């Protein structure tokens, strides 16, 4: 089993419920176990400004699936929850599930880059990740999570007290 950190995001069709449904689906991925979930955060959109704010969290999944098999399972969950892939990047969506870290692996596949290519610059990923990852977590390149947090201010982000 490998520990995988998955970023969850939604800003359409009742985003909190979308994330709750995604967590239920993550619990049912074969050869996997949902180990933990961060608090819920709300963040400003990265893309077009004329869209609702995003609800975000990070889930911890222990899995024996191969990375691309897990990606296929995550994309099936997105599709089941009404995700439409459009040419416009960072537009509104019902659900976004991103593999942030997959054990200590470094992957550069056409369909999957791990660690996630913008992990270091996204407070809506780093702060929830810091809640569920060990304080000693380091990326494959040796950078500690604490260093990434210091370089990425808690701006445009709101931590909600209610749990998913």
From TrEMBL:
InterPro entries: Hppk (IPR000550), Hppk_sf (IPR035907). It comes from the Bacteria. Transmembrane segments: none annotated. Pfam families: HPPK (PF01288). It comes from Stutzerimonas stutzeri (Pseudomonas stutzeri). The gene is folK. Its EC number is 2.7.6.3. SUPFAM superfamilies: 6-hydroxymethyl-7,8-dihydropterin pyrophosphokinase, HPPK. One of its GO terms (biological process) is tetrahydrofolate biosynthetic process. Pathway: Cofactor biosynthesis; tetrahydrofolate biosynthesis; 2-amino-4-hydroxy-6-hydroxymethyl-7,8-dihydropteridine diphosphate from 7,8-dihydroneopterin triphosphate: step 4/4. Keywords: ATP-binding, Folate biosynthesis, Kinase, Nucleotide-binding, Transferase. This is 2-amino-4-hydroxy-6-hydroxymethyldihydropteridine pyrophosphokinase. PANTHER family: 2-AMINO-4-HYDROXY-6-HYDROXYMETHYLDIHYDROPTERIDINE PYROPHOSPHOKINASE (PTHR43071).
């Amino acid at each position: 089993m490998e520990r995988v950190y998955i970023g969850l995001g939604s800003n359409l069709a009742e985003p909190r419920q979308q994330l709750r449904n995604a967590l239920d689906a993550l619990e049912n991925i074969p050869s996997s176990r949902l180990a933990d979930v961060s608090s819920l955060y709300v963040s400003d959109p990265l893309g077009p400004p004329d869209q609702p704010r995003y609800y975000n969290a990070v889930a911890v999944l222990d899995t024996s699936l191969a990375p691309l098999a897990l990606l296929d399972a995550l994309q099936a969950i997105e599709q089941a929850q009404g995700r439409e892939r459009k040419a416009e990047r960072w537009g509104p969506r019902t659900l976004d599930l991103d593999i942030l870290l997959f054990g200590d692996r470094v992957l550069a596949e056409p369909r999957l880059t791990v660690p996630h290519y913008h992990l270091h610059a996204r407070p809506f990923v780093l702060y929830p990740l810091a809640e569920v990852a060990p304080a000693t977590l380091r990326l494959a390149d040796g950078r500690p999570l604490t260093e990434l947090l210091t370089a990425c201010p808690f701006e445009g982000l709101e931590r909600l007290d209610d749990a998913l």
